[in-house]
Design a protein that fits this description.
Number of domains: 1
Shape: globular
Structural class: mainly alpha
Radius of gyration: 21 Å
Low-confidence stretches: 1-8, 361-370
Number of helices: 16
Distance between the termini: 49 Å
Mean pLDDT: 88
Order of helices and strands: HHHHHHHHHHHHHHHH
Number of strands: 0
Strand content: under 5%
Helix content: 55-70%
Length: 370
């Protein structure tokens, strides 16, 4: 009994984090799938309730775990007390990995949206888009991650000194705040996010990524987690298609909706079980993960550019191709571009690589040093 109490206080023993590499690759494929068929679900290319719409809805609903899992993996790695280092060292590295790409790719996508996509929307204001923390479809994630990065040295105090109960309690409160924010926003139409607040609803996922990182499902737990995941996906599909309101999917698809929360937490644990380190190649997923950040940054350019050439997902066959085949094609193409860009020193920083000549903060002097 004492051992059980001790595990409850400090968590399970540390495990390898190698499983996160193929998990991250699978998550980016799901993100691309969401973006390839989002306009079909949004009734731009198909009517709500049509066969094409339902297929797109199934693909979109089943992919909604991806962004929360990305955030949980980020938290699991950034909040690890074993990594040590001072806050200054941590933030110095993250400046190159998060903040520089945020600025560079905001500068890429604003002109792209203004000129290459000018036929899709009118009256778009880039300054307001930046102030909302979402200048393009995927860049909001960098704005969220940037603020969470600034808070990480403080959150590490909880992962270093806080008991397991305190960590779980804090994460539950943060996730509850996020879900309440989602409820207030969509039911009462209040609380629009902006550059300073967009991170807060998702902060619970960031902390839960660390708390749940070393939990490995065993035996019947795997079956129950799979059933919970599938049930959450099924409810999301049905609510998106049959729920109240003119566009019910806009509420249930959000990353803080109850079904997506359940889907994401169970999916995180299932991915750990599926990809628990054992040396397998996982169909090449591990080979793609070093370039997953580049795929994340680049893939909208493929999605929107190639869609103008090959046609939109407006029929069942087209939705299946866009939602199931093209995400892999786009991922491979973006991987190739990222691989090439990383060979060019001036381009490396745009993809989050720390320059070789970047200044490294000096370590603090030892205690008592005059």
């Amino acid at each position: 009994m004492a051992l059980i109490d001790r595990i409850d206080e400090v968590g399970p023993p540390p495990r390898s984090t190698q499983w996160m590499n193929p998990a991250r690759t699978l998550a980016i494929l799901a993100v691309i799938a969401i973006h390839t068929i989002a306009d079909t679900v949004g009734t731009r290319f198909a009517e709500h309730g049509s066969e094409a719409w339902w297929i797109a809805n199934v693909i979109d609903s089943a992919s909604r775990w991806s962004v929360p899992v990305f955030l949980m993996i980020s938290g699991a790695l950034a909040l690890d007390p074993a990594k040590g280092g001072s806050p200054r060292e941590f933030l110095s590295k993250r400046f190159w990995r998060i903040f520089v790409p945020l600025v560079v790719w905001t500068g890429v996508y604003i002109p792209y949206r203004l000129f290459a996509m000018s036929g899709y929307e009118t009256g778009w204001n880039p300054v307001l888009a930046i102030l909302t923390g979402s200048p393009f479809v995927q860049l909001y994630f960098l704005y969220v991650l940037a603020v969470l990065t600034l808070l990480t040295p403080f959150m590490r105090q909880l992962t270093v000194h806080g008991s397991r109960r305190a960590q779980w309690g804090t994460a539950a409160i943060l996730l509850g705040i996020g879900m309440l924010d989602h409820f207030a926003s969509y039911v009462f139409d209040v609380g629009d996010p902006n550059i300073a607040t967009r991170f807060l609803p998702l902060m619970g996922y960031y902390l839960l990524g660390w708390i749940m990182r070393d939990h490995l499902l065993r035996g019947a737990q795997v079956v129950w987690a799979a059933l919970v995941f599938l049930a959450a996906v099924a409810v999301t599909i049905l609510w998106a298609g049959l729920g109240p309101g003119a566009a019910p999917w806009t509420a249930v698809y959000e990353y803080l909706s109850p079904t997506v929360v359940v889907m994401s937490l169970s999916g995180y644990l299932l991915l750990h079980r599926l990809f628990d380190a054992d040396g397998r190649g996982y169909l090449g997923l591990r080979r793609l993960y070093p370039y997953s950040f580049g795929v994340f940054l680049l893939h909208p350019l493929c999605v929107y550019t190639f869609r103008d050439w090959i046609g939109v997902p407006d029929s069942v066959p087209a939705v299946l191709v866009h939602g199931l085949v093209l995400p892999l094609v786009y991922a491979l193409l973006c991987t190739a571009v990222t691989w090439a860009a990383l060979k060019v020193p001036v381009l490396r920083v745009a993809f989050g690589e720390v320059p070789r000549n970047a200044p490294v903060p000096a370590p603090p002097p030892p205690p008592g040093h005059a």
